[in-house]
Design a protein that fits this description.
The protein is α+β, with helices and mostly antiparallel strands and 682 residues long. Among the domains are: 74-105 and 405-447, no CATH class; 109-204, no CATH class; 208-270 and 322-389, Jelly Rolls (Sandwich), CATH 2.60.120.430. 33% of the residues lie in helices and 26% in strands. The protein has 12 helices and 35 strands. The strands form 10 sheets. Strands 14, 16, 17, 19, 24 and 26 form a 6-stranded antiparallel beta sheet that branches. A 5-stranded antiparallel beta sheet has the order 1-33-3-29-30, with no helix packed on it. A hairpin with a 2-residue loop joins strand 16 (231-234) and strand 17 (237-240). Helix 1 (15-63) runs antiparallel to helix 5. The radius of gyration is 50 Å and the shape is elongated. It starts with 14 loop residues before the first helix and ends with a helix.
């Protein structure tokens, strides 16, 4: 059936096949151009990949001797990471410190009593305070979930609410502050206070706050105080001059507790030396008059008494007394306890002392002021006893945690901070207090040897990857690929396509040889540190097998790849790092510019290949020009082939048409002949 000719559907002479056969010959130049173009694009991709390998090596080399080198990195090692840890910047100084975490910073976190799931929160204005920040919003009423969502929308990063199923078929409202520190207490105000009491979050607490009024009736002044000048009330403050005493009676007495705090304001004003009183010289003896006798109008006066008086001696100025522990507490049992020292200040400073360790469980009956100073006056005002755990008359019923500062001891010095992150204690170090510790924790700040090791390993890895790339591109030997046992089958197939692509490129051959020389060369370091002059001395080389390790001829070790003896490198890292650092980069002439070292040499030899206008840029630029030329040639060939194919189709179409016309003429002549014969036969 394939030989049946259908006019208008199938060519009588297989014109399409004839044209296709002719066009195959015509397409040979185009196919050769396409193949050449594909080869050029592959070569460009190989150069670009090689450029990435060189750039990686150069970057990792620069990292080992630039100002960002890991030899200046620091890390913090903790003997108890569950108690305290730290991170260090490059500015941190190598040192070791002892820490004791007494308490960590916490935030207020309160839980309500179990509530029915149908519990409704009334409409109102709910106000919360976290430290100095106030969060207030109007709530139109709704379920606990609605209230929690409304609070979370406005709580930002200060306050958060959630629901907890403590008991089946109930919900407990959990409200927590997100800010730690004793000064950032969570306080309920307005309708929030009512809700806290209603849900069992808090309850009304007995008011332990007591303000001590300074008035004459509550003062106990010493009797030998002429004119009341040594101790007197001036305005709202009690002033006690140098050498004076005063007592403030606390009636009724206040029962001390661990939570009780004494708060007051005090000014301790020291005089200047020139204002200090200087005693006068003592007067001489007072002599009675000599007397006289009068008789007959004649007066005879006795000669004055003569008493030898030594010259007066200037008295010594009074001994200077400095005493900053002026305050003490008197207790109902007759005992007393001193308060911590104050500080000199002409202005009033606020003081706050927890009384748990000072007063114990005794009852405070008075505040005593004893000014033993010879040149210092004290003024006292705004005296108040209070319990900071019961803000605004509310006491939490189910506190999960209460706001408190982190208390950390460093070498016996107690430090308080509102957060567990402490970044202002040791320069360049951020400490994180995690939990109280029973024993001192040692924190050591030392060089980050792990980072140094990783950077060195990264450099060796980039070196080996570049060396493998150079070996594949410059040699036509599949053994090179099989030696790279870490490659997958797909990666090996990809490398086989590159094999020997740039075998005749002298620049790459010289580059490979330079890398091998650099890896084997000795490098100058500072005097007395010449033990680190070779890479092999820190466990890096083309063959780092040690004595006792069997081995034979291994051609892969001749390719220039570097190996690392990790144990030997670890030992080198435990030694002083100056010599190791100088092996990779060293300023040999003192001009503050690194001019020698393994990493410096690698960066120097790599730079001409990847810098702007470098070797790889020139190579890819030349290939781009050839690609553009071949693409234009391909476009021309495609146009020519299209025109040639159209011409052949036109010619063969005309031939087919002419043949058809001849056939039709032949058929007409045959028919005319038959008709003529038929007519003659009649």
């Amino acid at each position: 059936m394939s030989d049946i000719y259908v006019p208008g559907v199938k060519s009588r002479f297989s014109t399409e096949k004839l044209i296709e056969d002719l066009m195959k010959v015509e397409r040979l130049p185009k196919e050769r151009a396409e193949k050449n173009l594909e080869n050029l694009k592959n070569e460009k991709a190989y150069w670009q990949e090689l450029g990435r390998r060189v750039s990686s090596l150069r970057d990792s080399a620069r990292l080992l001797y630039s100002f960002q080198n890991p030899f200046n990195d620091r890390r913090v090692l903790s003997s108890n990471e569950s108690a305290i840890t730290g991170t260090a910047t490059r500015e941190a100084i190598e040192q070791e410190r002892s820490f004791t975490v007494k308490q960590i910073a916490r935030a207020d976190r309160f839980l309500s009593a179990p509530l029915e799931e149908s519990f409704k929160v009334d409409s109102g204005t709910y106000t919360f305070s976290v430290g100095k920040d106030e969060i207030s919003f109007a709530f139109r009423g709704g379920s606990l979930q609605d209230f929690a969502e409304a609070l979370n929308r406005r709580g930002r990063d200060k306050l958060q609410a959630s629901l907890v199923t403590v008991e089946p078929k109930t919900k407990s409202l959990f409200i927590e502050s997100k800010v730690t520190g004793a000064e950032n207490r969570l306080v309920f105000s307005a309708d929030a206070e009512t809700l806290a009491i209603k849900t069992g979050i808090a309850e009304k607490a007995e008011d332990s706050s007591r303000e001590i009024k300074l008035e004459a009736a509550s003062l106990n002044l010493p009797s030998p105080d002429p004119g009341g000048k040594l101790a007197e009330i001036r305005g709202d403050a009690l002033q006690v001059a140098a050498g004076g005493m005063a007592g403030i009676t606390v009636t009724p007495g206040i029962k001390s507790s661990p939570a009780l705090v004494l708060q007051f304001e005090a000014a301790l004003n020291a005089w200047y030396e020139e204002n200090s009183p200087v005693p006068d010289s003592p007067p001489g003896p007072l002599m009675p008059p000599a007397g006289s006798v009068t008789y007959g109008g004649i007066t005879i006066t006795n000669a004055p008494s003569s008493v030898p008086v030594p010259p007066p001696e200037t008295p010594e100025p009074p001994r200077r007394v400095d005493d900053w522990s002026l305050l003490s507490l008197g207790f109902s049992d007759g005992s007393s306890a001193s308060l911590p020292p104050l500080e000199d200040s002409e202005d009033f400073n606020a003081y706050q002392f927890p009384l748990g360790d000072i007063a114990g469980d005794r009852t405070i009956s008075s505040i005593e002021i004893t000014n033993n100073n010879t040149h210092r006056d004290i003024s006292l005002r705004n005296i108040r006893f209070f319990d900071p755990e019961a803000p605004r008359g509310l006491k939490p019923r189910n506190p999960i945690s209460l706001a408190q500062d982190a208390v950390v001891g460093m070498e016996g010095i107690e430090i308080k901070r509102p957060a567990n992150l402490i970044d202002d204690l040791i320069p360049g170090v951020v400490l994180t207090a995690k939990e109280p510790s029973d024993h001192p924790v040692r924190l050591g700040i030392e060089p980050d040897r792990e980072s140094i090791k990783e950077t060195i390993i990264s450099l060796v890895g980039n070196y080996n990857r570049l060396m493998a790339e150079l070996n594949v591109l410059t040699r036509n030997d599949e053994t090179i690929i099989h030696e790279l046992s870490y490659l997958s089958a797909e990666e090996q197939d990809a490398l086989k396509k590159k094999l020997g692509t740039f075998a005749g490129d002298s620049a790459l051959t010289q580059f490979k040889n330079s890398l091998q020389r650099i890896a084997a060369a000795p490098y100058l370091t500072s005097a007395g540190q010449r033990d680190a002059a070779l890479l092999s001395q820190i466990g890096i080389g083309t063959d780092v097998r040690r004595t006792g390790v069997s081995g034979g001829y291994d051609p892969s070790r001749l390719r220039g790849y570097l190996e690392i003896d990790e144990k030997f490198l670890d030992t080198a890292l435990q030694s002083p790092l100056d010599a190791l650092q100088q092996l990779f980069g060293y300023d040999s002439d003192g001009d503050l510019i690194i001019d020698t070292g393994f990493a410096h040499a690698l960066e120097t030899v790599s730079r001409p290949f990847v810098e702007t206008g470098g070797i790889i840029s020139l190579k890819t630029g030349t290939i781009d020009s050839r690609i553009s030329r071949d693409e234009r040639r391909l476009t021309t060939l495609e146009q020519q082939l299209a025109a040639k194919e159209a011409a052949l189709k036109n010619q063969y179409g005309q031939m087919e048409g002419a043949y058809d016309r001849l056939e039709r003429m032949s058929a007409s002549l045959d028919q005319f002949s038959r008709q003529s014969n038929n007519a003659n036969n009649r």
